[in-house]
Amino acid sequence: MALLVEKTTSGREYKVKDMSQADFGRLEIELAEVEMPGLMSCRTEFGPSQPFKGAKITGSLHMTIQTAVLIETLTALGAEVRWCSCNIFSTQDHAAAAIARDSAAVFAWKGETLQEYWWCTERALDWGPGGGPDLIVDDGGDATLLIHEGVKAEEEYEKTGKVPDPNSTDNAEFQIVLTIIRDGLKSDPKKYTRMKERLVGVSEETTTGVKRLYQMQANGTLLFPAINVNDSVTKSKFDNLYGCRHSLPDGLMRATDVMIAGKVAVVAGYGDVGKGCAAAMKQAGARVIVTEIDPICALQALMEGLQVLTLEDVVSEADIFVTTTGNKDIIMVDHMRKMKNNAIVCNIGHFDNEIDMHGLETYPGVKRITIKPQTDRWVFPDTNSGIIVLAEGRLMNLGCATGHPSFVMSCSFTNQVIAQLELWNERKTGKYEKKVYVLPKHLDEKVAALHLGKLGAKLTKLTKDQADYISVPVEGPYKPPHYRY
Amino acid sequence: MALLVEKTTSGREYKVKDMSQADFGRLEIELAEVEMPGLMSCRTEFGPSQPFKGAKITGSLHMTIQTAVLIETLTALGAEVRWCSCNIFSTQDHAAAAIARDSAAVFAWKGETLQEYWWCTERALDWGPGGGPDLIVDDGGDATLLIHEGVKAEEEYEKTGKVPDPNSTDNAEFQIVLTIIRDGLKSDPKKYTRMKERLVGVSEETTTGVKRLYQMQANGTLLFPAINVNDSVTKSKFDNLYGCRHSLPDGLMRATDVMIAGKVAVVAGYGDVGKGCAAAMKQAGARVIVTEIDPICALQALMEGLQVLTLEDVVSEADIFVTTTGNKDIIMVDHMRKMKNNAIVCNIGHFDNEIDMHGLETYPGVKRITIKPQTDRWVFPDTNSGIIVLAEGRLMNLGCATGHPSFVMSCSFTNQVIAQLELWNERKTGKYEKKVYVLPKHLDEKVAALHLGKLGAKLTKLTKDQADYISVPVEGPYKPPHYRY
Amino acid sequence: MALLVEKTTSGREYKVKDMSQADFGRLEIELAEVEMPGLMSCRTEFGPSQPFKGAKITGSLHMTIQTAVLIETLTALGAEVRWCSCNIFSTQDHAAAAIARDSAAVFAWKGETLQEYWWCTERALDWGPGGGPDLIVDDGGDATLLIHEGVKAEEEYEKTGKVPDPNSTDNAEFQIVLTIIRDGLKSDPKKYTRMKERLVGVSEETTTGVKRLYQMQANGTLLFPAINVNDSVTKSKFDNLYGCRHSLPDGLMRATDVMIAGKVAVVAGYGDVGKGCAAAMKQAGARVIVTEIDPICALQALMEGLQVLTLEDVVSEADIFVTTTGNKDIIMVDHMRKMKNNAIVCNIGHFDNEIDMHGLETYPGVKRITIKPQTDRWVFPDTNSGIIVLAEGRLMNLGCATGHPSFVMSCSFTNQVIAQLELWNERKTGKYEKKVYVLPKHLDEKVAALHLGKLGAKLTKLTKDQADYISVPVEGPYKPPHYRY
Amino acid sequence: MALLVEKTTSGREYKVKDMSQADFGRLEIELAEVEMPGLMSCRTEFGPSQPFKGAKITGSLHMTIQTAVLIETLTALGAEVRWCSCNIFSTQDHAAAAIARDSAAVFAWKGETLQEYWWCTERALDWGPGGGPDLIVDDGGDATLLIHEGVKAEEEYEKTGKVPDPNSTDNAEFQIVLTIIRDGLKSDPKKYTRMKERLVGVSEETTTGVKRLYQMQANGTLLFPAINVNDSVTKSKFDNLYGCRHSLPDGLMRATDVMIAGKVAVVAGYGDVGKGCAAAMKQAGARVIVTEIDPICALQALMEGLQVLTLEDVVSEADIFVTTTGNKDIIMVDHMRKMKNNAIVCNIGHFDNEIDMHGLETYPGVKRITIKPQTDRWVFPDTNSGIIVLAEGRLMNLGCATGHPSFVMSCSFTNQVIAQLELWNERKTGKYEKKVYVLPKHLDEKVAALHLGKLGAKLTKLTKDQADYISVPVEGPYKPPHYRY
């Protein structure tokens, strides 16, 4: 795919796979709207006052149908938006087409190369001469990373004239990041510096991205305020848990059509994502074995009737392996060699380094047979036995299926909208310093409340007397900050 | 699609969508083989003796990847095979291509018209001058129906010279059947009579087809022996139950991406299929309401914590409706008009008459919006509210997903192979009269046994003393015929 | 306890533990009545016509609160009743007291010796000079056995003058049976012969009892008609399954207070009882391993995510062992020796020979520590490790808890009432020969229907058109006899 | 029961129901030890160094078998202990007897009056002339409350000579507290002041008790340091959740023998306790309806397929009502009047004021029929319909069954031991001020780790490289403080 920015008749930039899918995308967006009451409520409540008037928002977040509804909520509130995906396989091309045609500048397609991926990220951040963005919606932290690395390089360059050296790292992807920054330095040595000066803040979606932000806060290197959306209860205890409970079997079925009942499934990690995955596999009739480092999570797994063992204990008898850890080097090529023929290996946790893809790809004599896109059989020469790897080790629910369903994403994305509003509304008050913040509990409860009606629920109301008895306001928030749900 | 039979280089007839998908089909067939231990065991056990040598088998059964493994098991045992699908949406085109190229005469593609469907059925039955088939593998009974109707017409024609009148019926599909027979009478007035005389027997897969067979047996009109494969325990208590438990959510997810958790799902019918569907919806976090006519099945639903109500009670508050009854007129257009906007309506039971598609299509002012193939939104003019109908009211797991997974189909299809072998081996002994038979329990137990190793199970063995104590042979069968499992 | 028959002020015989518990029993009987809609409907429907007028019914069936409601349903319909328990531990003494005081001749208490047990059975069969019984309600077949053995002995005695020799058998319990018969022969050498001549028939409750009846039918030794109540769907698929799902954890908790979550539970046998037990353990958070001889049941277990192994594979790592097989010699003393300290061993299937109690009791140096009645810790001398055996190897749900709950027993017992009515009403028509019969399906469906209202269910009604389409009567029965539910 | 302190032969004080049950208690304590690996590990790790040498510990916590193992862990570590129950129905008399005989001064029996209850609490705090306690183990905060109220009264008395007036409150129980304090003032006007001066701290077990402590901290009235054990993950996410999942059905079964399957169960509150209760009812086959004030918890219930409604919506159709809120006035007498006949009403959350027992007891014409202790049927005069109230509205799992099982209590109580150790070890360092503290995460993880071996679990170990990648120490703690599990 030639990397040329295209333009709509109205002059908005974009780069998508196939603009003719825009109508199909629009139809699915309309279906999704019915399933996303939180976002639609935001349009009703805030739309009339156009709070984002003048705000330029860059998003780096899986360009799916659900994200399309998020983007059009932001634009409905007055924002101008540029967008890229945060994963090379996660774009739904019809969603990208519809948004590119109708609402925002999109640079995303399913099956980007890493080179293309970072080109798209650059484009989403490139607001042209007028400058921008004002706000970032981030997922995994790649947009934030690029700016931070860019600023670091520009400062070094200003001080010493040195440019980043891509060969300073082994990491193939980071080499690309450094190359982009190096090449940019020549044409505009202040690009990222201007960005960070203008930036009001970022709201971040994921455990992984949030971890990066807290590290930068701890190191004192965070360049702008950040709101940790991941740790809203209505995000991490819903999207991570119930989203994955839905989309893990979805991805497995679409990619492999394998019968889950009767199989042995290993779930590496029993955090929120792992809990959702283990529940899904158990409910579908698999026998589930969990691997964990944390004794508390391990004990939770045991209480649910799951076995807790190490990967080594079960590697040769399990049928399905799912990584959910947020860490690296979970399933190594040496594990994969010992697996049963056609064992399925996939990742729903984090980057593709949860699975040792590098080790697999470079294993002497290994043969890759692509069954269909995102479903590969890898055959080892010595055993003639193969394993099936989904989405090249990247997030399988986005690579092999369509990610989480609309309803649960409405919870996550309503948090995003509220976080963006909060940053933008307080941009001049100094309320937010260069730190990481969590949304206050009453907003978290509000997000939940917006999603109850759709499911026919009726809440009980406290009397004043009862509220006093447990020392909470009648209208909430109802729980102390440390409450775990 | 022009209805012209094509030929492979080896001269075998076929008609499929796209022969270039044969390689992809082959790859998926190879994956499926690993998941179908019962069929592969049949190849190992019976292949060397070529028991089907000389047998011509016609199959009318969803032309999927799993069926491909069945077909190639039949050919591996010596049979010559012609095949069509038993549902206009259920063919997987890559499976059809691989089989057409490599193994058997296939006439099937996804999205046939009814006209095309019956043309394919005729082709599968048409063995040319040499005559045939000897055996039929049937699913739903359409091949059997065509022969029975054909013979009836030929007898009438011989006696009275009268040909069938398509206008004698309201049923659009049956009109096509009569037309085909009428047109055939002119060129060959003994075609079906010769077929029935040669036919050794049929083995039938489904509840619906079996019901037809028992009716013909009761009426004394059954023309050849039939083995009821549906009521093997290893078929009806596995395929119907666990197959649907797998493929209902699969179909829902692929067609609509809707979040099942939190929704209200109505399952019409709580037989084996309904039990599987209700379990799937409950496990995915839906609240399930069952409708039933049979008080025993209703009481079973209650014992599982499901509510039992009538469709009228819940039609306006549920989100997902699934018919599993094997009956007609379950969800009528008047029900559909009262449903919530974007309620999902689908059928996994039987023919498309479980849902009143005719009423819907002819409702004044109704608007059909095709989101994507097999996913239509129907908007009523008065309410401007829409419902989503899957697979045009036909089996949604085959129309919107890929049907049941390989492992459970291996159980069903191993029964088919054993039934075909039994019919063929006994073709000259008179063991089977023109009646409907069930496979003996020791073969049923054998089918199960062939599937245990793949799942790592180890059986306990009775001692002689224990076997005597409960009055069974050490090697089984272990249960009386009336045992319900 | 001295074995003397006592009499109420009204002159009715009884022998119970403590008549002062009658008021407590009455209160619980009244609670149970609300939970037993099937039995209460029988009283309403049949009570006025007093169909059992003149009938003398002997029951041998766990003398619990639920059985009390059964007995008082029989008396409400006009019968005269004598009763004993069919298990030495299963009597609830307050239920026995209430019935003895108010309604029927009861001979039963919790914790009978085997000697006492058979004395009670004799008493329940002893209707005095007027003769009787006319009908038997049996559970496990002990009343039926005693009569059959008695008749056999009387015939032998008449022919040869020989009396039974208790030393002819190793089985301690059967020695008692023979002793009773031998001793009876002296005083009345025609007692059992007269009984069998008068007897209209027996209705039998359990898998075990039914198996005995079919064996006698096969051998041609069955002395009177029998109705197999066990195989009514509303019995075996409810009582066996849902009853055990309820009462297994109940018994475990009352006996041991052990936390089930996180434990490994082995369920021997995956029939209806085993399915209920496995479901209960899984739901409570245990990891469940099933042992099976039948490949079909084994495959069902696998489809539910349960592991299928042999007892030998897991004997040293499991925490809870439950036998449900209906066979003998399932858990032997050599297994028990290898178990973890304080492993729990119990039987919910059949007689106490599922567990090798004899081997345990006679193991050299073994020490029995009674924690409380029906909960014993047995310590092996070599390992100093102990296991916990419930109810001395007898049915633990009746020994350690209160058996199945009222609602599910209402299903079983309504079948009993209907079976008794059927036998009695047809006593002169010759409809029932000396064979084993199952109740017709419409009565089975009726039993279910009587239990729906209590749970708030509403049935759907077939239209005539729909009924014709599936070839059933509008009012049922809806399923063919071979249908498995 | 005359309120006279008795003495063992060794001179230790006690007051229990029946000392002859001590042997039975000892046997059950020995069983429990095998199930409480956390406590037993504390004995092994800390016993030799006798860290509690010289410490006088007063406990106010359900005097059950599990608590017995806690008490003997404290004494094994060198402490001297006095104990009372924190609930009038929760004592297991055999446990109390065994501890009184062997290990500590116990004042507790099942079925205390409120008067007796507070007398016991006084006795547990009364260490005689030598003074004490040094530490308090509290559950619900009653011991802490008595000291705080005592000190308040003594201060007022010293200042103004005024004594507390029991008539100043409507609350019957608080009247007793004030009476006790008033009467004590006469004999020793500095008793509680001396106590608070000596007290090193309290560790508190429950949500309710912790809430009181945080209120006192907020008001500045907290008199000594407190460790909030409730909010250890290994307490609130285990005991509250999995403990109740076990003990709710246990209590229901023992009290009523009611079949849970098929019933409609209303769970008021969906916190940790409510989650456990709802899971238990759902698993047992009930249809569960949740009532909630908090939209987040409500949304969680919906995601699990539970209906969320108000009590008013369902009061007349549900069968079982369980309160878990920690608030008051949840089920009022007006609700109870509208319930179905024999609806079951019980509380597993908090004090007996969750249920309007006062309204019920004083309802004109209401009739109380005691089925058995802790199981009462209350009949309303107007409807002649009754409801069944368990444990007089107090914690039904302790009143009707035996509370939570040993294994989960081992988690909770290991936190207690660690908290007590922490307070005692730091008694002179000033580490703990008059505030409420939570145990650090590494101790929480340690508690979990101590419970894994018993369940056969094996943890995965991080490599240094992996630990660095996610920025945690190799040996933990692994999660940030805000992590919700």
Q: Give me the secondary-structure category of chain A.
A: alpha/beta
The strand line-up of the biggest sheet of chain A is 11-10-9-12-13-16-15-14
Overall shape of chain A: globular
Spatial gap, N to C terminus of chain A:
47 Å
For this structure, the quaternary state is: homotetramer
Largest sheet of chain A: 8 strands, mixed
Separate helix tally of chain A:
19
Q: How many β-strand stretches of chain A?
A: 17
Average pLDDT number of chain A: 97
Helix residue percentage of chain A: 40-55%
Instruction: Name the biggest interface.
Output: B-C, 65 and 65 residues
Strand content of chain A: 5-15%
Q: Rg of chain A to the nearest angstrom?
A: 23 Å
Contiguous uncertain segments of 5+ residues of chain A: none
Organism (chains A, B, C, D): Fraxinus pennsylvanica
GO cellular component, one term (chains A, B, C, D): cytosol
Family (chains A, B, C, D): Belongs to the adenosylhomocysteinase family.
Cofactor (chains A, B, C, D): NAD(+)
What does this entry look like structurally?
Chains A, B, C, D: One of its GO terms (cellular component) is cytosol. Chains A, B, C, D: Its cofactor is NAD(+). Chains A, B, C, D: Keywords: Hydrolase, NAD, One-carbon metabolism. Chains A, B, C, D: It is an enzyme of class 3 (hydrolase). With 485 residues, chain A is an alpha/beta fold. Chain A is 44% helix and 14% strand. The first copy, chain A, has 19 helices and 17 strands. The first copy, chain A, has helices spanning 22-35, 37-46, 65-76, 93-102, 114-125, 142-160, 172-187, 191-198, 207-219, 233-256, 272-283, 295-303, 311-314, 333-337, 357-361, 396-399, 406-425, 441-450, 464-469; strands at residues 6-7, 13-14, 56-60, 80-84, 105-107, 135-138, 201-204, 226-228, 264-268, 287-291, 307-308, 320-323, 343-347, 367-372, 375-379, 386-390, 436-438. In chain A, the strands form three sheets. Chain A has an eight-stranded mixed β-sheet with strand order 11-10-9-12-13-16-15-14. In chain A, strands 5-4-3-6-7-8-17 form a seven-stranded parallel β-sheet, with helices on both faces. Chain A has a two-stranded antiparallel ribbon with strand order 1-2. In chain A, helix 2 runs parallel beside helix 3 (65-76), helix 3 runs parallel beside helix 4 (93-102) and helix 10 crosses helix 11 (272-283). The longest helix of chain A has 24 residues, at 233-256. Chain A is globular. Chain A starts with 5 loop residues before the first strand and ends in a 16-residue tail after the last helix.
